[in-house]
Amino acid sequence: MKKVFITRKIDDRVIHELKQHFSVEVWPHEDKPVPREELLRQAKTAHALMTMLSDKVDAELFNHAPELKIVANLAVGYDNIDVKEATERGVTISNTPDVLTGTTADLTFSLLMAVARRIVEASEYIKNGEWQSWSPYLLAGSDIHHKTIGIIGMGSIGEAVAKRAKGFDMDVLYHTRSRKREAEEAFGAKHVSLDDLLSQSDFVVCLAPLTAETKGMLSTEQFAKMQKGAFLINAGRGPVVDENALFAALQNGEIAGAGLDVFENEPISKDHPLLSLPNVVAAPHIGSASRATRYTMMELCAENITNVLNGKDAVTAVRA
Ligand code: DGY
Predict the structure, then answer these.
(1) CA distance 54 to 51
(2) Which of 100, 297, 300 most suits a substitution to test ligand 1, by most atoms within 8 Å of the C-beta?
(3) Which pTM was predicted?
(4) Same domain as 44, residue 115
(5) Can you give the CATH number for the domain in which 93 is found?
(6) Is 146 a catalytic residue?
């Protein structure tokens, strides 16, 4: 029987389904990543791996895995995987696009709203017993409606964010390698240079994937181009933003606030200076984390594994 190794405790229903056809081993913890040695040990006899974005899938792992046919990553992003190396070795890599688009766009927009309207600060204020009276500027924040949103990385999640923005009567700018005519027609989105996006947006929303070109693309120079009252939302990948530069920009009042779902190092340390700022709303990489969507993502991974181990194509294979 072919062997599937799953690097985190996932939904029992999906494990049960896979067990009908394969021998399945699961790292038994939901909240602790599989140690590297255990992953390499399991990979030795595995025909398929279901991995998380916290697992590094590289040449060393492939060297340990002579039987490996597919790595199904439980995420749309796959910067944790050396896809080129996999392709050279004939290992299929799959991800989970589309099924998480709406959920991740919801979270992205929630961060935008939370930081602009100071929702987390407001909640803490009440819970700490600080509310003495109504007052005109109490926790006054920034408007969202009729403002300008600039989306960096206009993939399907970017388009879904643009759709939400349109419902708030926002003007939509975007910066991406190739133009998205459908988004232009549907949401009046305007394709602009990065500099124009930074200088014209009230909300800069970063959804760019992590690549050699995007690493550190938002740094001191870019924050200096943003408006003083503008906000940065990052729900793509942490290393696209230079966190030291972001901290400096926030502290010096060069920008008004940040909503962050992703970080340079995850999990971010609770002592990280960014987390000490009241105008930072932080979430632990939960973009696609609704119960329904995570289940659908797991099912899609299982389908990709089943297909490939039965000699068929993965439904959502990634190309190098
Ligand atoms: C992904 O799927 O890449 C997201 O970052 C998960 O929330």
Answers:
(1) 8
(2) 100
(3) 0.97
(4) no
(5) 3.40.50.720
(6) no
What are the phi and psi torsion angles at 23 (to 5°)?
-85, 125
Tell whether 65 and 184 lie within a shared domain: no
217 shares a domain with 297? no
- Preceding omega of 136 cis (within 30 degrees of 0): no
Alpha carbons 7 and 30: distance in angstroms, whole number: 9
Are the beta carbons of 180 and 206 closer than 8 angstroms?
A: no
Residue 232 within a domain: yes
State the number of CA atoms in the 13 A half-sphere of 249 facing the CB.
27
Residue 274 DSSP symbol: G
Q: Would residue 199 count as lying in a domain?
A: yes
Per the structure block, which two tokens stand in for 65?
A: 């895995």
Distance 127 CA to ligand 1 centre (A): 31
| Tens digits of residue pLDDT in 270-287 | 999 999 999 999 999 999
Atom of ligand 1 nearest to the CA of 285: 7
Residue numbers of the domain that contains 20: 3-97+291-309
Our answer on whether the CB atom of 318 is closer than 6 Å to any ligand 1 atom is no
**Which pLDDT tens digit goes with each residue over 167-179?**
999 999 999 999 9
Q: Give a yes or no: residue 319 inside a domain.
A: no
Count the domains in the chain.
Answer: 2
Which position among 118, 175, 285, 294 bears the catalytic label? 285
